[in-house]
Amino acid sequence: MRIGLLVLSIGDFGKKGFYNLQEVGLARELDPLYDEVLICRLVGRHDSEVREPLDGCRNTTLRLLPAHAVGSNGIPPLKELDASIDALVCFSDTQLFFPSVYRWCQKHRIRLIPYIGVSRSHSSHPVKQKVMDWLFSRNLRLYKKLTCLAKTPGVRDELAADGVSDVITAPVGLDMTRLKPDADSVSPDSLKSRYGFASGEKVILFIGRMTAEKQPLRMIEIFREVLRRDSSFRLLMVGDGELSDDVDKCIGQHGLSESVTRLPRIPNSEIWELYRLSDCFVNLNRQEIYGMVLLEAMYYGCKVIAWHAPGPDFIIRDNVTGYLVGSNEQAYEHILDSVSLSQRAKAAVISDFSWKKTAGLIRDLTE
Fold first, then answer.
1. Alpha helix (H) ranges present in 110-187?
2. Are 348 and 321 in contact (CB under 8 A)?
3. Strand, coil or helix: what is 23?
4. Among 194, 246, 182, 180, which Cα is nearest to 218's?
5. Structural domains in the chain?
6. Residue 148 Cα distances to 92, 178, 362, 365, angstroms
7. Which of 30, 319, 345, 351 could be bridged to 298 by S-S, CB 3.0 to 4.6 A?
């Protein structure tokens, strides 16, 4: 049996070398279960096409296929896809051209399995919100005809409430082959020195695009209070985006230039160093769909503090593997405490958040 994985969205999310690619991690666990696995990720129309075997796999191919797009909605060049596969897992969400994929699968008698991480718009922009909700309602008519996979129980419940009768929770996992298993043997102080921190300084790590939804300005506000209480703390912010100038201005206005380090981005192969050197990782996105960075931080033993949202509420067992917060005050209180949850957090990631479970669910559906 042959199976395909199709990613319709086009953007920086999942860019090769800079993020934990969901479709690649899933494909690694599907590889021993199928005769062939074909991954297709749409990229910008000016990018080069890539077709290469996936390292460490028996018979899996990764294809980066140039395509036109409407915003982040890729227009799949369906004539270039392999119509002889038996099943297709489509990372669909609210993608504009999912109905085209549905019709293509119907035409070629391919079992279509949507993999859904969001069912509603989380944009604060009213026009974008209306457009996204319209796209979802359009896709919803098709979801009702299919067996759907939801990335979190929250999305599963939303789909069920909207009339999707056949929906299964299939959690996102980490690609364990891309993690550094011996990170515990590396001294945090040696890594701190490499990134310009003193051994006695405590580092707060913030990773995310500099956009309103990620709340970088709130992070600075929280850090100011932490620093007022304990001057040994430092803030390391990784990411770039439309609020970058505002973030830099805010840092300067509050005299934090000596206490905040900004990195526009870092390759995924090196990001373990940041988790290892940091005392805690903070995620303030109140609409976090999942949170791969939470899993990565937990795996590397970095204390996780996350704002209540669908992804963190699913991933974190509060006060056991991390902390869920709903206010600035709760955030800085947990940043300041010295409780370590590292061993329990790492164990939870290994047992509950690999791709093996979801690969098994897909295999059961296609047998």
1. 126-143, 153-161
2. yes
3. helix
4. 246
5. 2-170 (3.40.50.2000), 177-352 (3.40.50.2000)
6. 10, 28, 10, 10
7. 345
Q: Are 95 and 118 in contact (CB under 8 A)?
A: no
- Looking at residue 45, its amino acid is R
Give CA–CA dist 74/238, Å, rounded.
27
Four-residue CA torsion sign, 38, 75, 90, 128: positive
CA distances from residue 331 to 222, 284, 341 in whole angstroms, order as listed = 7, 9, 16
Distance CA 212, CA 218 (A): 9
274/268 Cα distance (integer angstroms): 11
Helices marked H in the chain — which ranges? 22-30, 98-108, 126-143, 153-161, 188-194, 216-229, 244-253, 271-277, 292-299, 310-315, 328-336, 342-352, 356-366
pLDDT in tens, the chain (367 residues): 999 999 999 875 444 444 458 999 999 999 999 999 999 999 999 999 999 999 999 999 999 999 999 988 999 999 999 999 999 999 998 899 999 999 999 999 999 999 999 876 555 566 666 767 777 788 999 999 999 999 999 899 999 999 999 999 999 998 888 899 999 999 999 999 999 999 999 999 999 999 999 999 999 999 999 999 999 999 999 999 999 999 999 999 999 999 999 999 888 889 999 999 999 999 999 988 888 899 999 999 999 999 999 899 999 998 899 999 999 999 999 999 987 787 889 889 988 888 999 999 999 999 9
Phi, psi of 2 (to 5 degrees): -120, 140
**Residues 193, 294, 267, 270, Cα dihedral to 10°:** 40
Question: What does the alpha-carbon distance between residue 348 and residue 321 come to, in Å, rounded to a whole number?
Answer: 7
Spatial neighbors of 17 by CB under 8 A, at least 6 apart, are: 267, 268, 269
